[in-house]
Write a structure and sequence with these properties.
- The chain has 320 residues and is mostly helical.
- It has 18 helices and no strands.
Amino acid sequence: MVVDKLTLEGSGGAASEALDVPAARRGDRSLPYLAGLIAVLFWGATPAATVLVAREMSSSLIGPSRLLMAAAFLVPIVLVCRPPFPTDKGAWIALAVNGVIGFGGSFFLQGLGFSRTSTSHAALILACAPVITALIQHLLLRSFPRPLWLVGSAIALCGEALLILMRFNGDVGSSGTMLGDLIVLLGTVTVSIGYLAGARLSARIGLFGATAWSIIFGAVFMLPLSRSLAQPLAALTALAGGSLLFLAVFCTLIGFAAWFWALQRGGVSAIAPLQFAQPIVSLVIATMFLGEHFSLAMLVSVGLVLAGVYICRRSVMAKG
């Protein structure tokens, strides 16, 4: 899953040190920035693409279809590149958690949730993933976070609560259901668990190996559903089929590859803040192409979530 400074704190520092290279060795950052922006653009379009697929396929089948399709494209690449394989018990556990929960669970819940809420709500809930990731990490390590991080997380979570609970008249038309918001929130928790497991695994076998083997492991876990997917996939129109292909290839494979390459070449501290643009991309798509509109509550939520995540990041960077 996506790895940033907040995620890498729990990996013993090895992955973070490997990615956050000294400035003297970074050279020109224009290409890493471009790669990072490409990943953010793809990920920002994920909710909208999922909604398009959900119009023609059961939402419970979108996640498994996306993961199995991504693995089908990935297997030949893995056979050629032969990334390192887990060799110890800890790495295998991290692989299983990232594959089944981080990829399989999050894709499944995103398919269910995105189809039951608005693109704008889904985007803002996903924007809190770094905060939830760090919170889970602190709970696992039984450590107490820095005061500044607590302030930032409280602000961001207040924005999420406002988004989910306060549905004023001006927001009803584009807010979807509270159930959909809660499913997306649960999916964000599974994403965060995957971030932590992926960071631990990448410290052992590298980012590409961790991501590739996790996607394949999650797809193997979904294989029993493959027969039930044949008919729904064959019935998709060009628009829905293209959207599913976009989710599997561009959002999953190319998006992760571009992001990890950007992190490795540009450094975590320089590239990670690009994630602030992800919910903005989703909101623009929701407004321009899906006809969603914003209420005052939505705009306040945007400000609180982005401000809270920013403060949390500043707290982590100051600690580093």
